[in-house]
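ok new one. same drill as before - structure tokens go in, u give me an amino acid for every spot. 227 of them this time. try not to just spam alanines like last time pls lmao
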């Protein structure tokens, strides 16, 4: 079975319309969880497709990669002594289970990236690891709801800044992402269009079709015979 290697991504910078200054509040905020494009490239603009909630195949995925775009609340400074660039340092993540299947827990993910005044930057970091999915899988349930609270943090102009917490729900489930075509790989009709799954991990957020090979191993994505 093919697994896509999970990578942590820094940001690509993209300019956006100026926003208001913070006046003591959060220096930036997570706008949305963007859908990665081909090659697991995470768009940094707020007009890109995004996910309101996620899904991960609990038995097969490498984890769950969160791919947010964050926007600065600072305006470009007229004072040459400050630049208001936010240097993001990481995120504090709290995981809970609304139906109380497991106890909640918190951890810190460290990564880096910069956000220019009024601009947006995309990031990619795990909010569920393979070990977390193993614990969920051990419950034996077909669908477990997971809630993540993500609070990114960093520094700007020598001061600590942080984003308002962002809440994101996802389902760790079986058969919600990977779909068995119910036939041996060699028996798939020529020309069948096979869904390829997610671009960062084929078992996250997008359907992937699977088949069984001669050794009864599940193959995802399914391989269509070449005639």
């Amino acid at each position: 079975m093919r697994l896509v290697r999970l990578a942590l991504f820094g940001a690509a910078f993209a300019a956006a319309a100026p926003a208001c200054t913070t006046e003591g509040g959060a220096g930036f905020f997570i706008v949305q969880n963007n859908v990665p494009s081909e090659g697991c490239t995470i768009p940094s603009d707020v007009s890109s497709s995004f996910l309101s909630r996620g899904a991960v195949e609990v038995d097969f995925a490498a984890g769950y990669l969160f791919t947010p775009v964050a926007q600065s609340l600072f305006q470009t400074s007229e004072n040459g002594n400050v630049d208001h660039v936010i240097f993001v340092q990481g995120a504090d993540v709290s995981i809970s289970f609304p139906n109380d299947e497991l106890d909640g827990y918190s951890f810190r993910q460290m990564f880096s990236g910069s956000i220019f005044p009024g601009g947006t930057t995309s990031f990619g970091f795990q909010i569920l690891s393979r070990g977390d999915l193993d614990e969920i899988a051990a419950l034996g349930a077909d669908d477990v709801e997971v809630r993540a609270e993500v609070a990114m943090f960093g520094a700007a102009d020598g001061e600590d800044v942080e984003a308002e917490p962002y809440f994101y729900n996802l389902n760790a489930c079986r058969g919600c992402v990977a779909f068995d075509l119910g036939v041996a790989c060699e028996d798939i009709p020529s020309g069948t269009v096979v869904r390829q799954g997610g671009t960062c991990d084929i078992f996250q957020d997008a359907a992937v079709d699977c088949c069984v090979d001669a050794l009864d191993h599940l193959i995802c994505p399914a391989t269509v015979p070449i005639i």
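The helical segments are 130-137. and btw The longest helix spans residues 130-137.
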